[in-house]
Design brief:
4-stranded mixed sheet, 8 helices, alpha/beta
């Protein structure tokens, strides 16, 4: 694995990377990169190799071919796709936060405040809602003071309105910390509005670019249905309201913890799909 020295270069980059396991090609000739301050989303059907790709980038899977180059001493905050917790285990939030990194309570509290769940610091993990649990996992990733956030299905177990609030939060964290964000999601409409660059993966890179460009690419249409002009048309919006942790809309008079800071948002118009 190579090391990136130039501060203007990508945080992490795959160069013609391939991955084989048990005689099966899981990834083939994949080239992609994540730069500081950008949100890159990997989309694709089940079995496309999305999780395999981020595990390969982080060094959790061995390369079969090609190369992965990382910035020197790159700090990564990782939210995995699944983190099963035994419901009979008396595990409070502050203990979950420090299972793999030693941080004082003040640092844990600060990270939880950033994701809007500081009041849950002593709550049992088994009592958290889906949205609360995902916010705790995001806070846990922030404890590493990451230059790159890697999020595998960060809104799983959250309802639609809660998803929008979480994507707003991810955008705010990107802006606040100046970190790059690499995420996997199946929620095409919301992701297209919350992402700077999209990589459409099906064991190889089918297409990549801005959400508007990818949504009109023939291979995107082939994978997800419709035609090149209307397959999952990009849903971009701008609003002045905020959301509660459960995703309910706050009135304009109420303060919102989650301001819409995502790049590339446009006002509601004819581009709704």
């Amino acid at each position: 694995m190579g090391v990136i020295m130039d501060t203007n270069s990508p945080l992490i980059e795959a160069q013609d990377a391939g991955l084989q396991s048990g005689g099966v090609t899981r990834l083939s000739h994949v080239s992609m990169a994540v730069h500081p301050g950008e949100i890159v989303c990997i989309i694709g059907p089940n079995g496309a190799g999305k999780t395999s790709l981020i595990r390969l980038l982080m060094g959790l899977e061995p390369l079969s071919s090609g190369k992965v180059v990382r910035r020197e001493d790159l700090r990564i905050g990782y939210v995995p796709q699944k983190m099963p917790i035994d419901p009979t285990l008396p595990l409070p939030v502050h203990r979950l936060m420090t299972l793999t990194v030693r941080k004082p309570r003040a640092s844990v509290l600060s990270a939880l405040q950033e994701t809007g769940v500081a009041h849950l610091i002593d709550a049992p993990v088994c009592n958290l809602s889906g949205g609360e649990f995902q916010r705790v996992l995001l806070a846990r990733a922030l404890l590493r003071e990451p230059q790159l956030l890697v999020l595998d299905e960060p809104v799983q177990g959250v309802d639609f309105t809660g998803e929008a609030a979480l994507y707003e939060l991810i955008g705010r964290l990107r802006t606040t910390h100046g970190c790059g964000v690499l995420l996997i999601s199946h929620d095409l409409h919301v992701v297209m509005a919350a992402t700077d660059r999209v990589i459409c993966l099906n064991r190889h890179v089918c297409c990549a670019g801005s959400p508007e460009t990818v949504s009109r690419h023939p291979e995107f249409a082939q994978l997800f249905g419709g035609t090149t002009s209307q397959a999952y048309a990009v849903y971009s919006h701008h609003h002045t309201h905020g959301h509660t942790l459960s995703g309910n809309i706050l009135s304009q008079e109420e303060p919102s913890m989650h301001q819409p800071t995502l790049k590339g948002q446009a006002e509601c118009g004819d581009d709704h799909g």
